[in-house]
Design a protein that fits this description.
The protein is mainly β. The protein is built from 3 helices and 38 strands. InterPro entries: Carb-bd-like_fold (IPR013784), Gal_mutarotase_sf_dom (IPR011013), Galactose-bd-like_sf (IPR008979), GH-type_carb-bd (IPR014718), Polysacch_Lyase_4 (IPR051850), RG-lyase_II (IPR029413), RG-lyase_III (IPR029411), Rhamnogal_lyase (IPR010325).
């Protein structure tokens, strides 16, 4: 299945923020859902979610309900929410449903990410209660209104969305667990579809065959005080723009790959056009953009040779919190509530997908906010995964002020220190930074940022942002110092931030 979307320049302006294909399967047959090897289970029914009939209880937002009177008692008190089953684009190759009674599987296979929006780690919906199976081409999920979905007068646009493959399989054996065989077969079929991309059967001239495309090769190196290979980095071609602009791009095609252990990469099957080469490297902050435009022609093989990324840095590291990986996964993620848990995510690598984890902050810090002491605290235990509001009443919330306490044996009062703050998510938030006086006027503020809603939607990241903040040495003192991180927006439970990584650098010695 695929669609060719075209907009003529004389048409009026519009917003088109969501394009997807949705399948609603027979609820009498399909009860078992699979999204990944470790994300599959027997599912409740849509009728179980019916609040008006007393089958479920409303929770903090409309997509999440607690199943109070489900048809099967095994689901009692569990939470069902379609956002618990989202998946990053790079991993969203195959998902679907199985009828264990009919021994039949229904699968959506996405062999390429070139037609999707937002880059390889943008999260999208997959399958959820219905039984529903979805493939999404453009959406604002986990990014919000920052997605580029507005089409202005005079703007022409055309894009081939897909093809995606709808695959049905069946099990004729007497295996007691047909879901295992059907899932493994679907994964194998997914691998075949990926290898067959781009398909050779599409007759439209708008869909380009393999021989009508080009490739780009190179080697990524990182210059952070010394030169090292950019290993396991994500590099991609996307429409020209600023570094990181691929996160919000919906109108063009994107082509991504990962570098090997020595930084080499090959981006294959690229549609002819003009692109920027973008990327980021785990373990380093910031976004890479190659200085020259890359012009790909049909049949071309472009070798960029060595490309060097110099991540933001103004001086040696004094201290750091977290790991620069564009997520908040390494921080403290609390245990779920026993009466609103999803058993799928117990003892799971994705434990952040449980409902209501943000509420644990108020329980852990009922009167005073988080204080992190550099050299004493451990970010995996002492840094809550999200800076959220504190609940003080049924519908009342207050801002939170986190503190980073650190010791400096010497201060260069005439120098300029640097605070690097990388955010993994922001939702209707404003990060204000103060030093050594929490009642002073903030010397840095982001202003209101973010609508990615990753806190509510069980994401451990949304849209990445990096702030490089100059800290005059006169604000610091020899001995104990405190950085205050205040998030003043507090209308509800979901305004807040997720931090990726924080680092303080001393003045440059150059």
């Amino acid at each position: 299945m695929y669609g060719i979307f075209e907009r003529l320049p004389e048409w009026p302006e519009l917003d088109m923020g969501l394009i997807r294909i949705a399948f609603k399967l027979n609820p009498e047959r399909f009860h078992y859902m699979a999204v990944a090897d470790n994300r599959q289970r027997e599912m409740p029914t849509e009728d179980d979610r019916d609040i008006k009939r007393g089958h479920a209880k409303a929770l903090g937002y409309k997509e999440a309900v607690q199943l109070t009177h489900p048809h099967n008692s095994m689901f009692k008190n569990q939470v069902d929410d379609k956002y618990q089953y989202t998946c990053e684009i790079k991993d969203n190759k195959v998902h679907g449903w199985i009828s264990t009674k009919s021994r039949v599987g229904f699968w959506i296979i996405s062999p390429s990410g070139e037609y999707r929006s937002g880059g390889p780690i943008k999260q999208e919906l997959t399958s959820h209660v219905g039984p529903t199976a979805i493939t999404t081409f453009i959406s604002g999920h986990y990014v919000g209104a920052d997605m580029e979905a507005h089409y202005r007068p005079g703007e022409a646009w055309k894009k081939v969305l897909g093809p995606v493959f709808i695959y049905l399989n069946s099990d004729s054996t007497s295996n007691n667990k047909p879901q295992d065989l059907l899932w493994e077969d679907a994964k194998q079929q997914s691998e075949k579809e990926v290898k067959a991309w781009p398909y050779d059967f599409v007759a439209s001239s708008d869909y380009l065959s393999r021989r009508e495309r080009g490739s780009v090769t190179g080697r990524l190196l990182v210059n952070d005080r010394f030169l090292t290979p950019g290993k396991s980095a994500y590099v991609g071609l996307a429409p020209p723009g600023e570094a990181g602009s691929w996160q919000t791009n919906t109108k063009g095609y994107q082509f991504w790959t990962k570098t090997n252990e020595t930084g080499y990469f090959t981006i294959e099957n690229v549609r002819p056009g003009t692109y920027n080469l973008y990327g980021w490297v785990p373990g380093f902050i910031g976004d890479f953009r190659y200085q020259n435009l890359v012009n790909v022609a049909a049949g071309s093989v472009i070798s960029l040779g060595r490309v060097v990324y110099k991540p933001p840095r103004n001086g040696p590291t004094l201290w750091e919190i977290g790991v620069p990986d564009r997520t908040a996964r390494e921080y403290f993620i609390p245990e779920p509530y026993k009466d609103t848990m999803n058993p799928l995510y117990l003892n799971h690598t994705d434990k952040f997908r449980q409902y209501g984890l943000w509420q644990r902050y108020t329980e852990l810090y009922p009167t005073h906010d988080l204080v992190y002491t550099v050299g004493v605290s451990n970010y995996s235990q002492d840094w809550f995964y999200a800076q959220v509001t504190r609940k003080t009443g049924d519908l009342t919330y207050v801002p939170t002020i986190w503190q980073i306490v650190f010791h400096l044996p010497y201060v260069n009062s005439r120098g300029s220190y640097t605070l690097q703050v990388a955010l993994a998510s922001a939702a209707w938030a404003n990060l204000q930074v103060r030093i050594n006086n929490q009642n002073s006027w903030p010397f840095f503020s982001t202003g209101t940022i973010g609508k990615d809603n990753a806190i509510a939607r069980h994401g451990i990241h949304g849209m990445y942002r990096l702030y490089t903040i100059d800290v005059p040495g006169r604000l610091l003192r020899t001995g104990t110092n405190t950085i205050y991180l205040r998030q003043p927006k507090a209308q509800g439970p979901f305004e807040g931030l997720m931090y990726d990584y924080i680092r303080l650098e001393e003045p440059s010695r150059a």
